[in-house]
Amino acid sequence: MRRVVSVWLPRWPIDRLRRRHPGAVPDDPFALVVSGEKGVRLAAVNGAASASGLRAGMALADARAVAPSLRTRTADAAADARDLRKLALWCTRYSPWTATDGADGLLLDVTGCAHLWGGEAGLLADLRRRLDALGLKSRLALAETAGAAWGLARYGAFPRPEDAVVAAGGLREALRPLPVEALRLAPEIVLLLQRLGLKTVGALYGLPRAALRRRFSSSELSAAVVLRLDQALGARDEPLSPLLPVPLYRSRAAFAEPVLDGAFIAAILDDLLADLCRVLARDLKGVRRLTLTAARVDGTTATLGIGASAPSRDARHLAYLFKEKLDALDPGFGIDALILSAESVDPLTEEQRALHDREVDGARLAELVDRLANTLGAENVEEIHGRESHIPERAEALRPAGAARSAWPDRLPAKPLRPFRLLARPEPIEVMAEVPEGPPLFFTWRRLARRVARAEGPERIAPEWWRNFQGADDPLRDYYRIEDVEGCRYWVFREGLYGEVSRDGRPRWYVHGLFA
Fold first, then answer.
1. Degrees (nearest 5) of the Cα angle 291, 296, 297?
2. pLDDT tens string 310-334
3. Whole-number Å distance between alpha carbons of 198 and 501
4. Residue 32, in any domain of the structure
């Protein structure tokens, strides 16, 4: 069952300005203003202005008539949105699923997370306490749906703090006394409902849907009311998108006191990696990308990320990759939570990692690539990988270390024997053959004549028709594996079908690779 927390920050622009610029918000009536089509209006007010009867949305001229001493400042909506997003990232200490909600709210999906705080009431209490410490006035509610949590946070009455948690199955009763504004309806729809005498959410419960539709002049308006009511009650799903992709695996540690010591942070990271790797081993998974998020006491976060060229659950190796980056982690005024998130994982079955006291070379090579990539930057370390092409020189390419591997080469049928060394480009040779379409008897390469002792082939490799379709003119090739009298083995090919000859009337031959 889903559990969602809605956080409403009724004075967010004012509180944000006070935190960013101490002394900018006076104790006497103060408001942030915005200019629009209807003139200058109040965007947010402080407590003194609210006590004087001012509210957001009032025209500035009307506000000055009520409070002549009102002081104003232009609102910064972009900065408000930017800092609200940072606060949502800070809330990942409670859940990996967080998002901003409008211009003054947050949503947290805390399904399966509340036990870390002793229950849902404990989670809300901890969140409320931390927001108060940041100087942010807030109202919180927890329910089964985002719509219900949103309405309760803004319009609910909670005699006790624990009443902000709606138990499973209690949505209808919790929403019944709330005004229809709690359904997140447009102002014109709210006004129409009030004129019809439907002032509370509970008044809509017993009203047949057909009768509700008849009361509206537009089917779109009635559909909006039905949709929001169903979403709040959980009768209809509401798609919600988190601010960041939800990590596949996650490990966290919280501290009673803010932490500044780098050695202590490194020790905690070792513990987090060990816990995460145990879970990965249980699921036969390996991590490709890890992110360490540090939640600071001032409501901000700092992140570090590492990548692996191959799936890994070796805590020692992963800790080494973080080692050089930990010095760059700024604890600010202190860190009170560390969250380790596995952003990308791949299957990793159990394998033998040692043979006669020597590690498998492939595993050591992957660790070396990881260390180079995380030190020099993944874009500066490249590796060769297979590519979907049967033309030899196009069947491999360079890619940044740690880039996702395609499963395509694993599905290809087994190819005939290929040379140990492939030349950068085919080099022309002079050939004498017993018959024009047969293998070479003699050939000259790099000014040295060689006599062929034995030959295998041909292996015909046709051009890629889709490239020819795009204007390329690639002839087919007949490849031979040949060995000279000295035991050297070569991979040579004749270009084009017999009869497709060069200007001098002789077939074109090339050496393309060398066998070990």
1. 155
2. 889 999 999 999 988 898 899 999 9
3. 90
4. no
Range of the domain at 91: 1-10+80-246
Q: What is the pTM of this model?
A: 0.73
Give the integer Cα–Cα distance in Å for 377 and 255.
32
Residue 261 CB partners (closer than 8 Å, separation 6+) = none
The conformation of residue 10, written as its DSSP 8-state character, comes to T
The answer to whether residues 102 and 208 belong to one domain is yes
The pLDDT assigned to 391 comes to 80
235-252 in b/e form (b: 16+ CB < 10 A) is eeeeeeebbbeebebbbb
The C-alpha atoms of residue 274 and residue 280 are separated, in whole angstroms, by: 10
Counted domains in the chain:
3
**Is the sign of the CA dihedral 141, 162, 87, 3 positive or negative?**
negative
Decide: 166 and 141 in contact? Cβ < 8 Å: yes
The helix/strand/coil state of 39 is: strand
Concatenating the DSSP letter of every residue in 329-396 gives ---TT-EEEEEEEEEEEEE------EETTEE-HHHHHHHHHHHHHHHH-GGG-EEEEE-S-SSGGGSE
Q: What is the pLDDT of residues 386-412, one digit of tens each?
A: 777 778 877 777 777 766 555 444 445
Average pLDDT, the chain: 87
What's the rounded Cα separation, in Å, for the pair 286 and 281? 8
Beta-carbon-side half-sphere exposure of residue 26 (alpha carbons within 13 Å): 11
Which pair of tokens denotes residue 183?
Answer: 């359904």
Using N-to-C axis directions, what is the helix angle for 219-233 and 146-155, rounded to 10°? 90
Write the DSSP string, 460-500.
Answer: EE---HHHHHTT--PPPEEEEEEEETTS-EEEEEEES-TT-
What type of residue is 14? I
On whether both 475 and 435 belong to a single domain, the answer is: yes
Residue 406, Cα to own-chain centre: how many angstroms?
20
